[in-house]
Amino acid sequence: MRVERLEGLAGGLTLRSLIPGGASVRADVEAIVEAVRADGDAALREYRTRFEHDSGPLRVAPERIDAAVTALRPDVRAGLELAMANVAAVAGASLGDDAEMILPQGQRLVIHERPVARAAIYAPGGRAPYPSTVVMGVVSAQVAGVADVVVCSPGAHEVVLAACALCGVDEVYAMGGAHAVAALAFGTESIPRADVIAGPGGLHVQEAKRLVSGDVGIDGFLGPSDLVVIADADADPELVALDLLAQAEHGEGTLVALVSDDEGLAAAVAARLEQGEETGAVAAVVAVEALEDALAVADAFAPEHLSLVGAAELTAADRIAGCVFVGAQSAVAFGDYVAGSNHSLPTGGAARFASALSPRAFRRRMAEVHIGTAAPALARAGAPIARAEGFRLHAESMEARVRENGAP
Predict the structure, then answer these.
(1) 357-394 exposure pattern, b = at least 16 Cβ within 10 A, e = fewer
(2) Number of helices followed by number of strands (H, E) in the chain
(3) Helix, strand or coil for residue 202?
């Protein structure tokens, strides 16, 4: 594995430039999305055959899903069931309840939070099957209260089908890529449209999600992966290197980095990384003068995953990251599977403003407004604003309520 050596704040701030830039796929994805929007199943079948080499049934037969869970290895099943329970427990903590309030002018507002009707979870299947992504997405949607949850995955691998069965999903489509996203966003003759599409995927999948985001809800642009570890002299270099190498398994475009103020740790980790197998990921070791500099490097990068080992553990709550793993025992891999946190996380620096996948991605909020006797006070305040904006009829609409109620 290629390891870049960087120094100080300036070196740390160049971390993101180490991620190799790929050619833009926007034009190709736009053509695919528009073809599926216009031609439905016909275009979908053509792209499945061309890109996935799959001309079989689009929807996976229920008996195949049942057979997959029956054949699942007991230890894998136990692991998935633990993951489901933990993800559900953590996801439930993010739900909001309806709230009612009476404002000083007398109007009553009720804030409702409701699930969307139909959600689609994209589980990648190109380089490897991801039953864990099924768990992360489906459980979050179910905790949100979504009644109709479907999964799509290219190839519909047996372990993915088994995860679907354990989660209670029987509507599974053997498809992937930009054409799958378009089919879920707009609907075709055989696939009802979804209200939200969530899940990681390759560049074509994420670009398709971006393009359809005006027509359907999405969880964000997820990928490629990254990890920053901040560690001091007390850290075990083998554990630090193993965490970095594990995340590098995600392949091309992945960036893993150690930021440390200890030269001995940095040298030991760098040597271990250089022995790692080639995955297409990029590794970096950033040497800084002090812990405060390491924290500044991480915050500027806004990583998907942040691991804090040693003195940095005390600053966990104040960091900018998709998910923070605190302490030597908190391997990032736990978060990918069974810790309960969600592994669908903001990447590309989006942790500055975005959050992990949660039930909120599958819920919508709306206000229910009862003006009643507050009309006079609100009209006196609102009508001048409306006229200042040039909306005379807005003002008259509010004032008409005052006259109707006989108020001055």
Answers:
(1) bbbbbbbeeeeeeebeebbbbbbeebbeebeeeeeeee
(2) 15, 14
(3) coil
Please write the tens of the pLDDT for every residue from 289-315. 999 999 999 999 999 999 999 999 999
What six digits make up the tokens of 81? 């069931």
Residue numbers annotated as active site: 304-305
Whether residue 406 is predicted with pLDDT greater than 70 in this model: the reply is no
Place of tokens 């403003």: 353
Provide Rg for the chain, Cα atoms: 25
The total of other beta-carbon atoms located within 10 Å of residue 181's CB is 33
Residue 310: count of CB within 10 angstroms of its CB: 19
Q: What pLDDT digit, counting tens, does each position of 145-189 carry?
A: 999 999 999 999 999 999 999 999 999 999 999 999 999 999 999
3-state secondary structure string across 220-256: CCCCCCEEEEEECCCCCHHHHHHHHHHHHCCCCCCEE
Per-residue model confidence as pLDDT tens digits over 135-145: 999 999 999 99
- Taking CA 19 as the corner, what is the angle to CA 15 and CA 20, rounded to the nearest 5 degrees? 145
Residues 238/272, Cβ–Cβ less than 8 Å: yes
pTM: 0.93
Report the run of H or E that residue 185 belongs to, with start and end: helix 177-186
Cβ-based neighbour number of residue 163 at 10 Å:
31
